[in-house]
Fold each of these.
Amino acid sequence: MSDGPVVVLGDALLDVDLRGVSRRDCPDAPAPVLEGTEAWYRPGGAALAALCAGAGGREVVLVTALGGDPAAEDLAELLRGSVRLVGLPLMERTPTKTRVQANGRTVARLDEGCDGVEREARAEDVARALDGASAVLVADYGHGLTRQAPVREALAARARRVPLVWDPHPRGAVPLPGARLVTPNAAEAEVPEGEEERALRRAGELAGVWDVRSVAVTLGARGAAWSDRSGGRALVPGRPVESPADTCGAGDAFAAACAVALAEGARVPDAVRRGVASASEFVAGGGASAHTRPRPGAAVPDPRAADAAAGGAPGRPGRLVATGGCFDVLHAGHVDLLRRARALGDRLVVLLNSDASVRALKGSGRPVVGERDRARVLSALDCVDEVVVFGETTPVRALERLRPDVWVKGGDYDVEELPETPVVRRAGGEVVTVPLVPGHSTTGLITRIRGRGRDGVPAR
């Protein structure tokens, strides 16, 4: 056990979500027209693994290849205060992946600087960055850094003294012989997630093929299967997470927790158990999306300021009202609620559950209408000023950004039991309910429609 930092070495990325609302398609191409776009940033790849490793207060150093560009500055700012960054100037451009999202759905991705490391690292620079490490985690994302001989030599020298955890990638380098633990996911190990016994056997096989001490194959929500070369094995079950909205980065959280545990002197099977628990907690906490924020240094947009500019009286911002729901198969009850909500203020924003969110809440047969069409129908109503699609099962995080003056729900909800209530009240807003129109229910409507065949004849 050492008091030194955990060093994460690998390929850091800058992930950007360019989010906008689409109410129509391009007239000359089957592509949505985005309005009101905002950019949201988060660390990706090895940078996310480093952030996970430091979540418990552990000192963490990230060693990665960067370019001399604004993306590198953005990434450094996102990690500031949590991770010490050692940026090796081996690239012209920092790897950046920009997801273009219309109404919460990714319609395109722009990759820049992702062709791989362009210059060779100096062995002395890598060795200096690894010096004093209590454990090393290699987060390989296939950009070529871990294939370089100077990097592998420095890693091998340090691994003779401290635990080395290697998180591999299909396009990455072969794990370093002698590594304490290698953590492929099921696809990388070429086994189905649901076949635990097969994963246990495969973990043992890979330990021999790679000449490493042990392998833990991660199995998503099912946990991990660990085996070592001497016949030790353990199946570590995962903790179920209710309606996970974002599982991206769970593997990084797993590997990071294993490295931290080994740095603290844990046995490898115990480190794997901690890794499984940490990955479950990471997903339950929102996954990689929980680390998303506006561009570092940029002011956070205030929707109420926009209201004032759009028509509020000088010095008095407009009253922002929000409501939310699935709105799958819009009916008269929905329209009545929306009109009542709009009457409570100067602007109405509808927070719309994404398709994945609706499925998590309503089951595999829903939604009947896709999120893009649901957003377009809602946007066409004169009482709706904006539609924002969110991917979680509750709109809590969307409300933290929006901070409405009024949050409106139907009269069948208890205000004090809503998870949104504390968030709205903390921002100075109020939560109100409005009466429902009797006899109107999406579920009932869908049931009646599905119970009839063509021409309205009841199905047999």
Note: The chain has two domains: 6-294, 303-454.
Amino acid sequence: MKSQKPARKIGKPQRRAPKPLPVPTAPVFPMRINKFLALKKQSTRRGADELIEKRQVFLNGRLAVLGDKVNENDNVEVRFRGNQKPPEYVYFAYNKPRGIVTHSAQGNEQEIKHVVALRDVFPIGRLDKDSHGLVILTNDGRITDRMLSPLYSHEKEYLVTTKEDLRSNFKVKMEAGVKIEDGTTRPCKVKVVDDRTFRVILTEGKKHQIRRMCVALFQEVDDLQRIRIMNISLGNLKEGAHRKIEGEELHTFLESMEII
């Protein structure tokens, strides 16, 4: 007689472990000089090209040119001539109202640069038109990638109100990660405030992420406010107002991104 195979045990399907986040690799030399200056946090790549065109960048004692390649032991200097001074970076916390877009206004839309009395600054990241709250404005392109890249896990906190009472399993489901159109979200932290209000701390920034997570969990967002980015809090800042980020608050902010 043929031996019978043992019956296969049927249990709950195991949930796949989330894919590990990509790990930044060591810099590879030779590299383009604009990438090198960005890596050294002296400029953005575009800003480095502008410095080179202004004849302010020297490679091993000679004027650098666009497209130069840098080896690991090369000496690269940025020199500001005459009365020119290094750029003075500024940082502001802004409380964006509903109805204002952060970038690329269309038609009759207004974006932040149209309504804020600050020159030569831009918003880092996006906050959708129907949401409101904290946006960081700056002229420092060095922090853009460090705040927005998925390689980093900087916290952003939101206060959210839903149109219907939260389901009993909402917190557990939300914190575990939610499957949406472009993948499963990272685990997050949720604190239920009342029947229709919760706080959520994310470490990623997919487009309309919280709204899509809520829809996937059979909830609809009524109001969404960003109240914190890393150590920068909205606090009592009035809607449409801005305040300068400086002192110890700024030092902690830049230090956490390894800018200083």
Note: The CA atoms of residues 41 and 186 lie 28 Å apart.
